[in-house]
Each structure stands twice: as C-alpha cells, then as structure tokens.
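Exam revision sheet. Question 4 asks you to relate a sequence to its structure. Input first:
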Amino acid sequence: MKRIALAGMVSALLSGAVLSQPVVAETYDPLFTPSPTAPRATQGLLVGAEKFGQKFVVVGDYGTILTGSNNTEWQQSNVPTSVLLTSVSVVDEQYMWAAGHQGALLRSTDGGQEWSMMMDGHQLLELEYAWLQQKEEELIAAIENAEDDYEAEELEYALDELSFQMGGAEIQYEVGPTKPFLDVHFFNREVGLAVGAYGTILRTTDGGQTWRVENDAIDNVIGYHINKLVPGPDQSLILIGEAGLLARSDDMGASFEMLDSPYHGSLFGALFDDSGNLWVYGLRGNVFVSEDGYSFEAIDVDTRYNLNGGLALSDGRIVLVGHAGVMAVIEPDTMDIDIFSHPSGSPISDIQQGIGNEVILLGRAGLQTFALPAASQ
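Answer key, structure tokens:
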C-alpha cells in the first residue's frame, strides 16, 4: 500500500502545476566562477606565497588570493576564478602572476588587488593540440627524408608516442580542461614560464599576451609532472619534478640542460642559500645539497614525511617544511639539524619569513605562524 501511495503522489506532482515552469539547473564551472568572498579565508587551504616590499601575496583553494603583512589585516583580492591556485610569482610591487588548476593563469597589474584571466584550460588545449599537430608534420617529413632504416625506425617510434599524446588530447577535448599548472615564474614583466602536469611547459616573451608550448625543452618523453621553477643567480632557473626530474636554464628558460638527479623519486622543491648552494628536497624527507649545481650530497634530516616547501632564513639557516607539520631547520655550516612540529600537525606547503625568528606557514590549516628558536652562536 505504501508503494502505491507513493506512486500516486509522484504521478500527481508530475501532472500538476509543479512542472508548469521548467526548472533550469545552473551549471557551475569553477574555472569561470569568481572566487567567493570568505571572512575566514586565512583558515582555508593555502598553497603558495611570495613577498613584495613589506607585504606578502598568498594563493590557495577556491581562487583565494590574499595580500597583507605581519602587522596588518589580510585582504582578499578580486579573482575571476574559483579553481585551486597553486603558485604565485611577483615581478615587482605592481605586476604579479598566479597559476592554478584547469589551466588557469592570472595576472595583476595593481599590486595584487585585481586579477585578470590571461590563460584558461580551453586555450591551453588549443595550444597544445596545435603544437602536437606541428610535431606530427615535422616527424612525417623527417621519416620521408631519413638517411637510413635505423633513423626511420627511431622516428616512427617517436611518431607512435606522439600519436598516443594526440589521442589523450582528443579525450581532453571531450571531458574539458583538467590539466593543472603547478608553478609560474616571471623574470620580468615580459618573459615568463608556466609549468605543470604531464610535462607541460609554456613560455611567453610578451607579458603573457601570447604563449608558446616548450614541452620538448627538456628530455621528458614520458611526460613527468613538473612541480617547481626555482630562480637562481644571474637569471638562472632550476626546474624540478616527478621521478627526480631536474634541469637548469641560464637563458631565462629559452633552453634547459638536464642534470644528473641525485634521487629518482618526486622532487617538490628547491632553493639557493646565501652561499649559492642548491638544495633540493621532496618525497619521504629526501634532501640533497650541491655546491656546484651538478654533484649532490644526501642530507639525513631524520624525517620520512614529504617535504613541500623551503626557505633560506635571514640568519643563513635553511628551513624545510612538509606533512604532519614537520619543520627541519638546518645550519649549513655545521649541518646540525633540528626537527620541529607545528602544534596543528597539519600539512605545510610553503613558508615565508616573518618578523625576527617568526615564520609564516601555509597549508591545509590555512595561514599560521611559528616562532623558531634563535640560531646558536
């Protein structure tokens, strides 16, 4: 009886005035939905930050971008997207860029208050597919002009690999943009790079008005994710990623030299200390340091948590942060290491220097601070 009664109620609803006006469901597209205003934005997931002047710019989930400093209230910016933003690059006190999921690249020209979409995932799909088609034409021509069967066979193998990538791109057209940018870096207002999942590398020389696909700038046929771009001395740039991917550019990203990686697991970050030494770190607490940028020494930091971010403090010490709130503080001269844990126990993704010995931490629990003990004399 209950089933019959329910069926009768449904029939009455369908035949009545309830459906006299069609109900149209709004389609939610985070890529083109402005970031919501959040009174507690500092407590949400925050991923990356950079300093400009005496302020910081911070990016995170739902398109959140905040500007502020240690002594002032944090201000939420006007952002035209609500995708997760993964990184930010400050060019100067006016110009800055942010990168995020679904192929989002954003630019601000007023110190981080207002942001404009300069690239979206649909445009990225178009760029990459056109690049793949050009590569296909070049390979077909090279096969026809091969000097011998061995060269032709090698080129045909490369063509097969390319066909696989084109098939993936065609699937992406059907499901829509999903590829994230994981980092962005601008050398000046004109020249910059954006990198991300599956070996994506884009470069611009006109301030982001146009972009060129540079996926073959490094030896990354398999398409390992590129996690980070780390600026170094004299306009150099370190590129790191999945499976120990490690490369260096000395011409503002126009070309890269592959480096012998000290580790074949994922690398999540790198930094240069005051002496010019290169530190790289990542999965399971693996840390390595190099004096010349080519040969590396393993450093045992006594943790197996993933290390996601790092900072060279003003007193010369290195701080690496990661999962479970871990903070490894390293004295480069003596290699003495102290391990701390933030009381929240929450994953930390990035770190910035605050006032004195205080550091600003970003991660799953939002924006937090921690007072490190002073360096031993």
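Marking note for examiners. Residues 149-175 form the longest helix (27 residues).
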